């Protein structure tokens, strides 16, 4: 119904922001990451929104990027995850961290979100792990993936490049260089493997 709402930020409280579009002040529920990234009251903002209707209420949920909005919608497809729980997950984990947790099957990270228990976290992983692409976590995503595939004909240089990109992606996710290098080092990297394949395999060694 609403793609985004653009206007003046007039209030911020709890998990709600109010955006004034001239004649209407819109209440929008947002995750903590949005609260922290928004400019001060009185500034213009653009928030991508999802309109949710329940028997007893209607509400808008908002994010600063379409990627975050898409993840929110994906979470809503999981049995047992409503809008409140999905917002809780996205307040606890940044998008790359949530994607990494799903790919590495790290239910404990997802279960840290208030209102989300271990069983629900497992359902999130089961339902979404095939919908998340490891290449989305790589620096420069599509460009890097293309480069790696071209290098695959060059023998060991391809494997070295894929491993290097995987280490860079893990460091960008917040792991130390040592942790990233150890995890990638435990993967048997072949020249046929892309950077995203190495990254996905490496994440399994960081989930425990």
Key attributes of the depicted protein:
208 residues; alpha+beta; 47% helix; single chain; 10 helices; five-stranded mixed barrel; elongated
Provide an overview of this structure:
The structure is a single chain. By secondary structure, this protein is of the alpha+beta class. The chain is 47% helix and 17% strand. The protein has ten helices and five strands, in the order E-E-E-H-E-E-H-H-H-H-H-H-H-H-H. A five-stranded mixed beta barrel has the order 1-2-3-5-4. Strand 1 (4-13) and strand 2 form a beta hairpin. Helix 2 (66-76) packs across helix 3 (83-92). The longest helix is centred in the C-terminal third of the chain and has 17 residues, at 156-172. The model is unreliable at 140-156 (pLDDT under 50).
Write a brief structural summary.
This protein has 208 residues and is α+β, with helices and mostly antiparallel strands.
List the helices and strands and how they pair.
Elements: E1 4-13, E2 16-20, E3 25-29, H1 32-37, E4 44-53, E5 58-63, H2 66-76, H3 83-92, H4 95-103, H5 107-110, H6 118-128, H7 141-151, H8 156-172, H9 177-185, H10 195-203
Parallel strand pairs: 3-5
Antiparallel strand pairs: 1-2, 1-4, 2-3, 4-5
Helix pairs in contact: 2-3, 7-8, 8-9, 8-10, 9-10
